[in-house]
Amino acid sequence: MSLIEISDYRLAFDGFEGRVHVLDGIDLAVEAGEAVGIVGETGCGKSVLARSLLRLNPAPPARVVSGAIRFDGADVLAMDAAGLRRLRGGTMGMVFQDPVTYLNPVFTIGRQMEEVLRAHEPAMPRAARRDRAVALLDSVRLPGPAALLDRYPHELSGGMRQRVLIAQALAGNPRVLIADEPTTALDVTIQRQVLALIADLVERLGLTLLLISHDLGVIGAACRRIVVMYAGNVVEDAPAALLFAAPRHPYTQGLLAAMPDLRRPGHMPQGIPGSIPNLRDPPRGCRFHPRCPLAAEICRQEKPELRGAPHAVACHMVPA
Ligand code: SF4
């Protein structure tokens, strides 16, 4: 049994203009201790999938159409409020993209750390909570953690604020860290530092990591396994080294061709022609077929299955 098991999971959002088929039969198993990156263009469903693990997609409008999500054998979709509370923050810690949105500007870092700790351990004495807050800020390598407790979010840089959010995500001693675009709002140097910190925490604390990003470079820096999503489907799932050396799905090949390569002077990144489909009325068969240079008649009729291990691909034109 894997730590996280997602099977044939379909999720839609019901809106005024109809139903949007956001996740279309996701199968994904993650073992304890794995560092898995989920990559794809904006709108491919990767963040919705990450939030599904914690049942954070508001329902309605979100509606589970079919499938199952299990964490350590427990049925996440059937959990009651107490089970969900244990799961959110206690078992799985989540870090979001924009620290400005998730830190309250009018409260000090100390007060916000205390609130998170109180939610996890209401009986912990105040002095112990303060010590624990300092230890958590120290564990994410924030300098002068005791003095930081009296500072306000606006007094911290973007990278420091993101470290505070990571410290909060660790407050409940989670087994899984879910980081959704944690470096997108940061400049490149700080991005690298935050990714190195996440990789170090995963190693040190024995965490399972799910890192969500639109940027294959970010994913490659922290993950050993990469899951590529396109328009609500997993199209490729492989060890990072294999995926970078020999991508098999035409979409993954397009993503790699779109990456700048500073080692090759004069190299011009090539964008993928076309745009992601409207998921209110997604293309029949393979959802990538309107943009795919290899598309054949079967691609317009039948959805390809994800096949192969450890390098799985969903494409009619790629042999298993
Ligand atoms: Fe392209 Fe067909 Fe493969 Fe889809 S199944 S990626 S359309 S070749």
Write a concise keyword list for the protein shown above.
320 residues, alpha/beta, Rossmann fold, 2 domains, seven-stranded mixed sheet, 22% strand, binds iron/sulfur cluster
Summarize the structure.
This protein has 320 residues and is an alpha/beta fold. The chain has 2 domains: 220 residues, P-loop containing nucleotide triphosphate hydrolases (Rossmann fold, 3-Layer(aba) Sandwich); 93 residues, no CATH class.
Can you walk me through this structure?
This protein has 320 residues and is of the alpha/beta class. The chain has two domains: 4-223, 3-Layer(aba) Sandwich (Rossmann fold); 228-320, no CATH class. 32% of the residues lie in helices and 22% in strands. It has twelve helices and eleven strands. The protein has helices spanning 46-52, 81-87, 99-102, 109-120, 126-139, 145-148, 158-169, 188-205, 216-222, 240-245, 250-257, 297-301, and strands at residues 4-15, 18-30, 35-39, 62-71, 74-75, 92-95, 176-180, 208-213, 225-230, 233-239, 312-313. The strands form two sheets. Strands 6-7-8-3-9-10-11 form a seven-stranded mixed β-sheet, sandwiched between helices. α4 crosses α5 (126-139), α5 packs across α7 and α7 (158-169) packs parallel to α8. It is globular. The two termini are 24 Å apart. The site of iron/sulfur cluster has 12 residues, from loops.
